[in-house]
Structure formats: structure tokens, C-alpha cells
Amino acid sequence: MIEKISSLLQNISKSANTKEINNTLPILLHILKKEGKDTYLIKMGNLQTKTKSQKELIIGAKYLANVNKSSVGSILLSNLTPYPKILDDIKEAPLKLKHEELKNFLSKDAKDFTQEWKNFLLDHFVQASNKNDFLFFGNMLLSLQKEILTLIVSEENKDSLLQIKKNKTLSQLEFYALYPHLGDINGIVSLDADKNLTLKLEVKFESIKNLLEKNLSSLDLFSQVHIIKSENISPLFSFEDHLLNLKG
Q1: What is the pTM of this model?
Q2: Which terminus of the chain, N or C, has less C-beta within 10 A?
Q3: Residue 20: which pLDDT band, with cuts at 50, 70 and 90?
Q4: How far apart are CA 207 and CA 13, in angstroms?
Q5: Domains of the chain by range and CATH?
Q6: Bridge pairing between strands 224-229 and 197-203
Q7: What is the DSSP string of 151-188?
Q8: Could you name the domain of life of the organism this protein comes from (predicted)?
């Protein structure tokens, strides 16, 4: 069941790169400065423009938001969500997997690859030559200690975060994925009594929900797929800036 998650995430990644629906995806915004009571100068890609926001925005911060134009041509923002800092942090990650490598890795027996992965991380942790590598491999080990598999997946120069946790019942896996243009996604893969796989996804944007409903229909790995919009999505494991009491 765990290897099916890799195929699912690859399918989601491909969906996000289709030109047909790119205009519906949340856009990355940089808040440059405040120019009035509720007016901000923002940067979207190479474009700088002004917009209004009833919500107080943090100067210098990044946000994901749905962007539209009003009837008079002004920029309208909706569903502003702070851009996850971890996406910037993992750009410097010393270990990243391609989707095909991820599939091969997850296709192994769970006990085998968990032990193999732990030994690999321990070797690189004790041999870390700088603070960045030390923190990275230490966090990966700490995640594994909490029975959460954390991986960085990179495809076409875009990095995403994947976390997988086996629930107490062997018939269910929980996962968390974080994409640059899709934001946070929570998922549960379940195996029913008839050996059918079902999938439940939670996303933060209505546009992402619509995108996935449109594109995941081609995914025949699951007998049922349920997608809902939720504000309460968080990683299964959060990276620490310092490590204490790390056990092997």
C-alpha cells in the first residue's frame, strides 16, 4: 500500500504542471511594503503591483493566494495563506529523490527499507561536515524515531516534502505532502475488507480541490477518492532548528 502513495504524488505533481489549469493555481506573493491603511505593494513573479487586503499582511513575508482581477482591472486576493518556510529550507537539502527513485525505494519490504534508511541516515549524520547537513539528517532521524518517514522529492527543479505514517491499524496509512504551487495536502489511504484501496485528501484551496477532482479520475489505483477543503492541515513532523536528546 505504501508504494501506491508514490504513484499518487507523481500524478498530483503532473496535474499541477498542466498549462490548461495553471491559471487556477494559488500564486506566490511577496509583500514588499504597506502603502496605506489596507494597500500593499506586492510582487508576483516579475510583476510589482498594488492591491488591497482587509487582512493585515506581514511586510517581507511570502503568501500563497488566489489572484483575480475586478471589473475595473484591480488585483483581488483571496485565501491568503502563509507560504510554508520549509519549502525554502529544503532547497538546500543534501538528499533529494526523483519520483522513480521513490517508487523503487517504497517498493521494498517495509522493515527492510526502514532499517536500511535508518542506517543510511545515521552514517550521514555522524559524518556531517556542516551545520545544515547535521540538522537535516538529524531531523530525518528524529522523524523516523517518531515512526514518520520524511522524504524530499525533486522533479523538474521543484522540491516537495513527503511524510508517511502507518496508523495503528495495518489497513491504513496517513501521509502529508507539501508542494510549491499546491500548498499542504493531507491524505489517508485505506484498505477495506474487500482489498479495495480508498483515498481521502484534504487541501487548503478550493481551486486545488477542483483541480484534483478533475485530474485524479484517471488514477485507477483507488476504488474511491474523497477530496475536501480544510483549513487545519499541518505536517506530521516539523523540522527543528536545533536538536536535543536525539537517539539512534
Answers
A1: 0.86
A2: C
A3: very low
A4: 15
A5: 2-19+86-229 (no CATH), 25-83 (2.40.50)
A6: parallel
A7: EEEEETTEEEEEEEEE-SSTTEEEEEEEETTTEEEEEE
A8: Bacteria
